[in-house]
Structures are given as structure tokens and as C-alpha cells.
Amino acid sequence: MTRKAEIGERLGEVEERIAQACRAAGRDPAEVTLIAITKTYPADDVRILAELGVRDVGENRDQEAAGKAAECADLPLTWHFVGQLQTNKVRSVVGYADVIHSVDRERLARAISKEAVRAGREVTCLVQVALDDDPERGGALAADVPALADVIAAAENVRLGGVMAVAPLGEDPGKAFGRLREIALALQSRHPGAVMVSAGMSGDLSEAVANGATHVRVGTALLGRRKPFVR
């Protein structure tokens, strides 16, 4: 089987899983955007995904993403940065990312705004919400989300898109995403345009869709088990 045939088969399976989850939740599958997470995979796979109709691609490490985005600059893609982001990487990430999912502190939001102004770009930012107490996974505490969202919404060249979260390890993802849904709805009452809910990966996308996810981030189910990342 060619790589394109393999990815095409996997893509069909993922799209059917999303469709099934939407049917179970009484939702239209058109409401859910698939983001293909291509970390550790080559630009050739990004090109195959684009040929198969995928338009949203996600990466979580700038040192890998920057070169890949440049190599694929001719493709009609929306690039999503989904990993934890340090301020010293903001200039690079703003150069290619259309959406940054991992904004979890005001200093980072202001840095993104500064670099977006400098680059003459508008970047959509999501508030990453911590659904557990693990600081290594990033995310703003639920109580801090409204203030952070206000900062993003007021920043130049930045658009508040909504929220993102990762289900906590060892917890029922449905319950965790239920909490995210409440946070998302509260945010939308303050900022009606912030309708994006980025939640769900290969193993828990059904629970995410059931709780209102508008974007699911899928890598393994699309491209296979990843090779270890070598620094």
C-alpha cells in the first residue's frame, strides 16, 4: 500500500468516527473541523493530506513546525500551533501559525500581539484551559480564563477564538470535557464570537464532540504511531 493510500484509508476512518460522534450528539458533522497533527512526520505527509482535502494542520514544536510550514507554503492550509509556547519562540511561531491554541498567560498574549503587529498578521488565539493540576501540561486555571480572554480580545492583531484543553490523564474525558463546555459557554456569554472549542484527540474525540468540540486534533489515528522526537 502506498503512503497516500494508507493515509487516505486512515482519514476515511477518522472522518467516519467524527460523523458517528456527531450523529450520537445530534450535531452536524460540518460543525467539527479536523486538525491533522503532523508532528514528527515529514512535509511529504502534509502534502498528501492536502491532496486528500485536509486544510487544517497542527504542530507542537516550533523547531520542527517552522521549516515544515515554509516547505509547504504553497499549499492552501491553515496552520495551528498546539504546543506549549515560550515567549522566545513567539516571533517565529507568529510567522506561520494562523491559530495558536496554547495561550495560557497574559504575558504570552501580549507577546503574540506585539509580534503579530510587527509581522502585519492577524493571529487567532485560544485560551488553553487547565482541566487538572499538572503545571507541566500548561493551561490557565478556570478562574483566570475570563481575565485572560479579555486581554486577548483587546490586543492588537489578535482575535479571541475560544478555548482549548487536553483531557487529564486517568480521568473520564467526558467529565473533563463537560467542564470545558461550561467554561466555553461562560466565555461566549462575554465574547459571543469566541465559539471555537479545541478538544479531543485520537483516543477521546467522541467524548469531545459530545461536549461541543468544534475542532479535534488527531495525529496517531491519521498518520500512525510516532517516532520518538530527537532534539
From TrEMBL:
Keyword hit for Cell membrane: no
UniProt xrefs under Pfam families: Ala_racemase_N
GO molecular function: pyridoxal phosphate binding
Coiled-coil ranges per UniProt: none
Alphabetic keyword roster: Pyridoxal phosphate
CDD domains given in the database record: PLPDE_III_YBL036c_like
Cofactor(s) this protein cannot do without: pyridoxal 5'-phosphate
InterPro entries named in the record: Ala_racemase_N, PLP-binding_barrel, PyrdxlP_homeostasis
Span of domain Alanine racemase N-terminal: 14-225
N6-(pyridoxal phosphate)lysine: residues bearing it: 39
Membership in a protein family: Belongs to the pyridoxal phosphate-binding protein YggS/PROSC family.
PANTHER family reported in the protein's UniProt record: PROLINE SYNTHETASE CO-TRANSCRIBED BACTERIAL HOMOLOG PROTEIN (PTHR10146), PYRIDOXAL PHOSPHATE HOMEOSTASIS PROTEIN (PTHR10146:SF14)
Function, in words: Pyridoxal 5'-phosphate (PLP)-binding protein, which is involved in PLP homeostasis.
Protein name as annotated: Pyridoxal phosphate homeostasis protein
Organism: Nonomuraea endophytica
